[in-house]
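Researcher: Let's do a round of design. I'm pasting the structure tokens now; please hold your answer until I've finished.
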């Protein structure tokens, strides 16, 4: 037996499956997972985009409001995972159909690939800062490739170890964040932060900031059921993920807004979404933290991308190792496209446009149309309640397409007073319900056939 074959068999035995699991994680454990997951440099640097486009105080307020609004979607989708034991992309078979779910699955892989590129670039920039400060040689693209290569290797061999140490990395991040907050507010007063002049030419408005913050929650919701299906009860999943996600996002984004404001008040050049801009005033320890946090989180992103592909269609499982090698190679090549960093806001808005309607449909379908339960048919490769028309629920596809187009138009063509993500979510939710009322009346709930003893896991 060849080394490749032995490795492939080992990975197949240890890779996550899309079938239902019985969760055992406590509220505290789920909270720590979510706290660790979002204490990452991309969230921190997102906060650097907002000041001086809007004033500092308003930026902090919108970060809090947008995070709490987005967290509602995140925990609601995550709770479906807790009740059924299924990961997020497997759950899309419920509303979209066995084959129709490939639409959100493909979008998810594209989004995760984009995240892996962005994070590899940021890790490369942070590592380049450390190396250049010692040698005078700067090669950020090379270091981005090196970082992503390490990430792919870890995703194949070491994702379980990374998951175990993420809470410790989060503790280090929190310590560094506390140091930065203390340094910032002992150097300048809150009034000085608030007095930073607004630069409207940057193009950020309060509504755009709110949409970006909500889109951040939407981007994490693609993994909400993946994490929360391991929660022991719905209470543990909802409270743990809600508190963990909200705290980490508010702290990290507020730190980004504070750090860029500190740079402005210190007379430096405020370059948004640039780790070096905020690393220089606070030294190499922050660069080390950025590098390690990105490596840890990006390993789980790449691993999640691979498991999404291998479990895309029940009964037709793709081999883990070749999928990991192909997707890993694409992620390494993409890590050289540094121009994506300049389009990060567009990237987040795209996530909101693609996935806010998906989650609106998932929530409406599970809690209202399917009456809070999915039957074992959702695990079928063909046939059953979720086969719809040749495996596709065209009502869901149509509602998703209309919602995605609406979000795009309300962002770039006809801006609304409350942004684009919220009205797009509501429009899709109502539209899907209207199209699915006949199905709801035709299929009463079947408690005896629920997945994963969902009723027993609600306590």
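Researcher: That's everything. Go ahead.
Model: Designed sequence:
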């Amino acid at each position: 037996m060849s080394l490749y074959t032995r490795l492939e068999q080992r990975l197949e035995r240890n890779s996550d499956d899309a079938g239902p699991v019985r969760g055992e994680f406590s509220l505290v454990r789920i909270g720590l997972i979510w706290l660790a997951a979002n204490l990452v440099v991309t969230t921190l640097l997102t906060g650097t985009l907002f000041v001086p486009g809007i004033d500092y105080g308003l930026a902090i307020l919108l970060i809090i409001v947008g995070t709490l609004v987005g967290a509602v979607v995140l925990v609601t989708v995550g709770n479906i995972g807790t009740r059924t034991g299924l990961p997020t992309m497997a759950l899309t078979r419920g509303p979209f159909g066995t084959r129709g779910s490939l639409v959100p699955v493909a979008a998810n892989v594209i989004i995760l690939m984009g995240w892996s590129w962005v994070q590899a670039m940021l890790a490369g920039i942070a590592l380049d800062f450390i190396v250049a400060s010692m040698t005078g040689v700067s090669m950020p693209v090379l270091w981005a490739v090196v970082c992503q290569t390490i990430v792919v290797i870890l995703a194949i061999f070491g994702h379980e170890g990374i998951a175990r140490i993420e809470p410790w990395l989060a503790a280090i991040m929190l310590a560094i964040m506390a140091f930065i907050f203390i340094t910032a507010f002992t150097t300048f007063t809150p009034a000085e932060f608030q007095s930073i002049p607004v630069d409207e030419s940057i193009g950020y408005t309060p509504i755009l900031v709110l949409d970006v913050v909500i889109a951040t929650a939407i981007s994490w919701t693609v993994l909400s059921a993946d994490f929360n299906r391991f929660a022991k009860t719905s209470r543990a999943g909802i409270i743990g993920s809600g508190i963990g996600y909200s705290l980490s996002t508010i702290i990290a984004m507020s730190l980004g807004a504070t750090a860029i404001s500190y740079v402005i008040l210190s007379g430096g050049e405020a370059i948004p979404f640039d780790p070096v801009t905020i690393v220089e005033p606070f030294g190499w320890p922050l660069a080390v933290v950025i590098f390690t946090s990105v490596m840890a989180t990006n390993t789980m992103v790449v691993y999640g991308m691979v498991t999404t592909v291998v479990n895309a269609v029940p009964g037709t499982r793709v081999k883990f190792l070749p999928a990991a090698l192909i997707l890993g190679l694409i992620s390494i090549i993409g890590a050289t496209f540094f121009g994506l960093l300049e389009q990060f806001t567009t990237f987040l808005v795209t996530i909101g446009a693609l996935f806010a309607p998906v989650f609106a449909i998932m929530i409406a379908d599970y809690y209202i149309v399917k009456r809070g339960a999915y039957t074992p048919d959702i695990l079928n490769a063909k046939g059953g309640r979720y086969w719809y028309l040749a495996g596709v629920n065209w009502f869901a596809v149509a509602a998703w397409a209309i919602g995605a187009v609406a979000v795009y138009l309300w962002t770039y063509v006809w801006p609304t007073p409350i942004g684009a993500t919220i009205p797009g979510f509501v429009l899709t939710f109502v539209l899907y319900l209207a199209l699915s009322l006949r199905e709801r009346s035709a299929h009463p709930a079947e408690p005896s056939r629920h997945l994963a003893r969902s009723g027993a896991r609600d306590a």
